[in-house]
From TrEMBL, chain A:
It holds the Pfam family BPD_transp_1. GO terms for cellular component: plasma membrane. InterPro entries: BP-dep_ABC_trans_perm, MetI-like, MetI-like_sf. Its main location: membrane. It is a multi-pass membrane protein. This is Trehalose transport system permease protein SugB. GO terms for biological process: transmembrane transport. It comes from Meiothermus luteus. Belongs to the binding-protein-dependent transport system permease family. It is found in: Cell membrane. Residues 68-258 form the ABC transmembrane type-1 domain.
């Protein structure tokens, strides 16, 4: 076997693997463009007159919009808040490390290793007593806590590579700490902030455990809405697929864009 | 690449306390305090439906958990799930990573397709598999089975744990692959070239250069995945609800049932303490690994 032939076969194998892995998503998208009758047709149809009916139906149901909005608020709100807290923290640790910095960083990740079931009961009781159950902002706060360590680590890893001389110069010129962060650090860390934000949005958007337990009709995001289809029999597959498709599409696209940064963020920089 | 930055001159040091305090405070308030409260509840009798009747019961909750066969079934299911998914995803992830390490036309696109399952909301993934693929009447697998002259299988009823393992592996293989691929790409091409010149065949190259190089990456993959997999919830909630019977009831799902199905807070808390201990055993290894990396001056 010549070397070229091996390459050709490996390429085919790689495409085959890609097709197999992507197939369930492809199938979901396909079903989203079917009518209910087409969706459960046997034999399954690969070619059919595509319709936007199911997507329209999913979108025009008023509660779908509300769930979508809840997802947006909880994912974006938590990400914004996490950045607000993480930028100063990562800045401090990256540029002014103390002997305790490493311990602090490790402690921060250690909070990610706590399984949610380990704290759900008190959190639930506290939310109940504060009347925070079914409140989308409270859910966003929960997501902030969930993602804060990841955001701090992503930013920290990046800030460490920013040349210190820039910061030093500003400081000598009499810039305050806030000015230093806002005027000097932020403009050069766009990519880092973007990737930390993407990662945080993805994790919050797909989260299910907290949202299921802490929200009801008012504040529930898409994950909870989609879960309500879990007992749906054949009649609702097209609608279920359409709703699911719109729910996963934003994150799928973000994930595609953030592939590389994701490895860093999810492994806390342990693999490069 | 970077070395530890030199310590700033003292006079130029900002007061970093106020920069760090908000983040640390929030994490303490929402992670450490609730866990202490979980421990507190685990020693108490507390049923949400009957809130007047509470008080300390010592180790009774732990005793009732540890002597309950359901609890041990859940622990066993958890370990089976984590173990099988780990074995499948690491192996498959390794194969895919080696495959995608090669340069071929359209690699970026194909890689994007391969890693997509990782971004699918776990609930959606459960619904795709449960309804559209594994459904015994309308599912694609049933149709394929019929075309092949086989009886369609009701996957989730007949092979519940295997089905969950398949579903979860589909989601987590991309994670393993992505990490291993990243690890592979830091392998120097020169080293592979040198081995080739020395007459190493593909298998020897893989066995003696690639695998040792990946040792650290693989251990990170195994440990991180273990932590994530120990907390799998949405997939089970949306597909089998822990059934049939107890076949797919894992520890997180059991705690959820005790707390929000039966409102037995004390018993659920005792289970939660056990889940945290289990996760911590894993976490200690992870932290040690990441800490060692940090020590190396790189992040």
């Amino acid at each position: 076997m010549s070397a070229r032939r091996v390459r050709w076969e490996l390429t085919l194998l790689a495409y085959l693997a890609a097709g197999l892995m992507f197939f369930p998503i492809f199938w979901l998208f396909l079903t989203g463009f079917k009518s209910e009758a087409e969706a459960i047709a046997i034999p399954p149809r690969l070619f059919f007159p595509p319709t936007l009916e199911s997507i329209q139906e999913a979108l025009t149901r008023s509660d779908y919009g509300a769930h979508f909005l809840n997802s947006v608020i909880s994912a974006l709100g938590s990400t914004l808040l996490a950045l607000l807290l993480a930028v100063p923290a990562a800045y401090a640790m990256a540029f002014y490390p103390t002997p305790r910095t490493q311990g602090t960083l490790l402690w921060m990740i250690s909070t990610k290793m706590m399984p949610p079931v380990g704290v759900i009961i008190p959190v639930y009781l506290i939310f109940r007593d504060l009347r925070w159950l079914d409140n989308v902002w409270a859910l966003a706060l929960m997501y902030t806590v969930m993602n804060l360590p990841v955001v701090v680590w992503t930013l920290y890893a990046y800030f460490r590579e920013v040349p210190h001389e820039i910061m030093e110069a500003a400081r000598v010129d009499g810039a305050s700490t806030a000015q230093e962060m806002l005027r000097v650090l932020l403009p050069v860390s766009g990519p880092a902030i973007a990737s930390a934000a993407l990662l945080s949005i993805i994790l919050a958007w797909n989260e299910t455990f907290w949202s299921l337990n802490l929200t009801a009709a008012q504040a529930s995001p898409l994950s909870v809405y989609v879960a309500s289809f879990k007992t749906a029999e054949g009649l609702f597959w097209a609608k279920m697929s359409a709703a699911s498709m719109i729910a996963i599409l934003p994150v799928l696209v973000m994930g595609w864009l953030a592939q590389r940064q994701l490895v860093r963020g999810l492994t806390f920089g342990a693999i490069k | 690449m970077t070395h530890s930055p030199p310590l700033r001159r003292y006079s130029l040091r900002p007061n970093t306390f106020w920069l760090l305090a908000p983040a640390i405070l929030l994490l303490v308030v929402w992670t450490q305090i609730p866990f202490v409260l979980t421990i507190y509840h685990s020693f108490r009798r507390f049923n949400l439906l009957n809130p007047e009747r509470q008080g300390f019961v010592g180790l009774e909750n732990f005793h009732s958990q540890l002597t309950d066969p359901i609890f041990w079934t859940a622990v066993q299911n958890t370990l089976v799930l984590v173990g099988s998914v780990l074995a499948i995803t690491v192996l498959l992830g390794l194969v895919l990573a080696v495959l995608f390490y090669q340069d071929f036309p359209g690699r970026a696109l194909a890689r994007t397709l391969v890693i997509s399952p990782f971004f699918v909301m776990p609930v959606v993934s459960a619904l795709i598999w449960k309804n559209m693929l594994m459904h015994p009447v309308y599912g694609l697998f049933a149709w394929i089975a019929q075309r092949l002259g086989q009886e369609p299988i009701d996957w989730l009823a007949t092979y519940p744990m295997q089905s969950i393992v398949l579903m979860v592996s589909w989601q987590w293989t991309p994670f393993a692959m992505l990490l291993i691929l990243t690890g592979l790409q830091s392998l120097s091409k020169e080293q592979l070239e040198a081995a080739k010149i020395d007459g190493a065949n593909a298998w020897q190259e893989f066995r003696y250069i690639i695998v040792p190089h990946l040792a650290q990456t693989l251990s990170v993959v195994v440990m991180l995945e273990t932590i994530f997999l120990l907390t799998i919830f949405a997939e089970i909630y949306a597909s089998t609800s822990g059934g049939p019977g107890l076949a797919t009831t894992t520890l997180p799902y059991l705690i959820y049932l005790k707390a929000f199905g039966e409102y037995r807070i004390g018993v659920a808390a005792a289970g939660a303490v056990f889940a945290v201990i289990l996760a911590n055993i894993v976490a200690i290894f992870v932290l040690r690994m990441i800490g060692r990396n940090l020590q190396g001056g790189r992040t």
